[in-house]
Each structure stands twice: as C-alpha cells, then as structure tokens.
C-alpha cells in the first residue's frame, strides 16, 4: 500500500495535505512552497548536537535572523505570499521548541483566522505534545513533526543532555525515559485526533544508527505515518563525530522503510526558511529587510 493510500485509509480528507506539503511528498517538494516562522524563543530540552542562534548565514535548523512576535509573523507571511504564491504550508520549527512557550500556538491562531486554507505544520521535540494536543488541533494544525532520536533510554541518554518539565530539571536516564514516554504518548494522542505525524530522527553514527529501525517500528505503532532521517551536522558536544556517509544514510533509510514511508529530500532548513525547497532558492532574506538582526537568544 502506498503512503498516500495508507494515510487516506485513516482519513480521506488528508490527501490534499500530502499532495501539497513539500516536507511530506517528493513531488510537492519541487512544486510547492513553505515558510518557517521563527517565533519560538526557548527550548525545554538540550540535544548534544544542537547549537541554536540568531544569524543570517548558517544554513541549518535552529537558526534565524530574529525571533518574531506572533503579530510580526503574520506580517511576514503576508509578504511571503506576495513574493511566493506557491506557498501552501506555514510551519513553525523554532528556533527553540514550539511548545516550550505559547508563541507558536498564538501565531497559528492568528494565521488560521486569516488564512484558513493554508496547511499549518508544527515541529516539536514532543515533550509537551500530549498536553497541548487539543490546542494544537484547535488552531488549525494538520501536520506535526516530532524529533525522536531514540526509543531506548541508554541510547537517548547519549544524545539528550537534559530535560526541563514544569520546573523540574532532569538529566541522564531520568531525562531520557521521561522524554521517550512523553513523545510516544504525544504521537499517539495527536494522531488519534486526525493529525498526520512525521518523525524526524537525527542519524548519529555510532550512537543511534543501528537503532533507527526500532524507532520507525515503535513510532509507527504509536501513530506516525512518515519518517525523515537527518544526517548529523557535527557541532556542539558532537562536533567531533563524523556525519554519516551516503552509504550509511541509504542503509539506514532502507531499514526504516520496512516500517514507515521515508521522506528523502530534507534540506536542513533554517527556522526562517521560505520558498520552494526543491528548487534550491530561498527568499527569506527579502522578508526581513525591515528587521534588525537580534544578537541575543534564550538557550533556556
């Protein structure tokens, strides 16, 4: 059964999401646009490969020119739609976690009122996904991406440094266990509510490369529909780990594809990316010419 038929067996109304979502469909990747609105200023976990920041040059997740207010984000979207009418998806993927503050949900609420037909897509580490599931659906979000780097405590402990939840600071196996349970519970709940769930997994050679098939199997059982393996960008505490080779990446994709459809066209998008990703150009610099570049960022 193809991915589209599998999703449609859950809900036929999702067909248009797959066809027009450049992060779910190969064809859409080359024909439709997306915008990432950088409205989330803080994160509630820390992954050892993550270095977030505010800049104009680093082409990788977690980076943006500035953190927008929800109201500024609507203005930026207005301008983006004029410049790139092919945009079908409004995503929020940082620079921090979308559920660590209420900024992303407030932004989606404003956008859904003005542009109800645009696909809304939220990316999260999943720590708070279950408890915000109803709110996420109420502001029009139809697709959610959850970054799941391990479903085994001993492996995730090597990737995630700490978790902060309701004022509690957790490290080690406690943090890893808490995060895994929260992610799977969140995926289960949000998928049961009719939201399409994609899993992102950062492929870290020697740490979770042998584990990705289990991630796919477990997250599919929880309700995920598609997975994207992201090659490690050596940075932070993992700056000395070499990224996976093409051979290693393809082998990992073959393993996870036994359980989930694999999206193969990820481009390591910034948190303020805008344009048609498959056509290799980005118009985000045109959207921020009236904004001053910020020099501080909350890593809390």
Automatic annotation (TrEMBL):
- Cofactor(s) recorded in Swiss-Prot or TrEMBL: [4Fe-4S] cluster
Under InterPro entries, the record lists: Aldolase_TIM, Elp3/MiaA/NifB-like_rSAM, rSAM, rSAM_sf
PROSITE patterns in the record: RADICAL_SAM
Q: Where are the transmembrane segments?
A: none
Respond yes or no to whether keyword Isomerase is given for this record.
no
Q: Where is the Radical SAM core domain?
A: 29-265
Keyword Transit peptide appears in the UniProt entry:
no
Q: In which pathway does it act?
A: Cofactor biosynthesis; Fe-Mo cofactor biosynthesis
- Please give the Pfam families that the UniProt record associates with this protein: Radical_SAM
The GO molecular function terms of this record are: 4 iron, 4 sulfur cluster binding; lyase activity; metal ion binding
The UniProt keyword set, sorted, is:
4Fe-4S, Iron, Iron-sulfur, Lyase, Metal-binding, Nitrogen fixation, S-adenosyl-L-methionine
Q: Which family does it belong to?
A: Belongs to the radical SAM superfamily. NifB family.
Q: What does this protein do?
A: Involved in the biosynthesis of the iron-molybdenum cofactor (FeMo-co or M-cluster) found in the dinitrogenase enzyme of the nitrogenase complex in nitrogen-fixing microorganisms. NifB catalyzes the crucial step of radical SAM-dependent carbide insertion that occurs concomitant with the insertion of a 9th sulfur and the rearrangement/coupling of two [4Fe-4S] clusters into a [8Fe-9S-C] cluster, the precursor to the M-cluster.
Q: Would you tell me the protein name for this molecule? A: FeMo cofactor biosynthesis protein NifB
């Amino acid at each position: 059964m193809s991915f589209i038929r599998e999703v449609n067996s859950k809900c036929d109304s999702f067909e248009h999401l797959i066809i027009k979502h450049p992060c779910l469909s190969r064809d859409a990747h080359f024909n439709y646009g997306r915008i990432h609105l950088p409205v989330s200023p803080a994160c509630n976990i820390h992954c050892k490969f993550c270095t977030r920041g505010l800049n104009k040059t680093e082409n990788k997740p977690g980076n943006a020119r500035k953190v927008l207010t929800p109201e500024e984000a609507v203005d930026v979207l207005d301008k983006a739609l004029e410049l790139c009418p092919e945009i079908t998806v409004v995503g929020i993927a940082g620079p921090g976690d979308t559920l660590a503050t209420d900024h992303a949900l407030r932004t989606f609420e404003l956008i859904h009122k003005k542009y109800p037909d645009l696909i809304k897509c939220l990316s999260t580490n999943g720590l708070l996904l279950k408890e915000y599931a109803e709110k996420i659906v109420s502001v029009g979000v139809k697709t959610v991406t959850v970054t799941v780097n391990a479903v085994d405590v001993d492996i995730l402990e090597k990737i995630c440094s700490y978790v902060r939840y309701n004022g509690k600071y957790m490290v080690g196996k406690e943090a890893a266990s808490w995060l895994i349970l929260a992610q799977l519970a969140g995926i289960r709940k949000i998928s049961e509510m009719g939201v399409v769930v994609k899993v992102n997994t950062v492929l870290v050679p020697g740490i979770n490369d042998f584990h990705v098939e289990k991630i796919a199997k477990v997250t599919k059982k929880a309700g995920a529909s598609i997975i994207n393996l992201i090659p490690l960008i050596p940075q932070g505490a993992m700056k000395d780990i070499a990224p996976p080779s093409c051979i290693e990446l393809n082998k990992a994709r073959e393993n996870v594809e036994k359980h989930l459809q694999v999206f193969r066209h990820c481009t390591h998008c910034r948190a303020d990316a805008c344009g048609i990703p498959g056509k290799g150009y980005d118009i985000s610099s045109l959207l921020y010419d009236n904004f001053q570049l910020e020099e501080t960022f909350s890593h809390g």
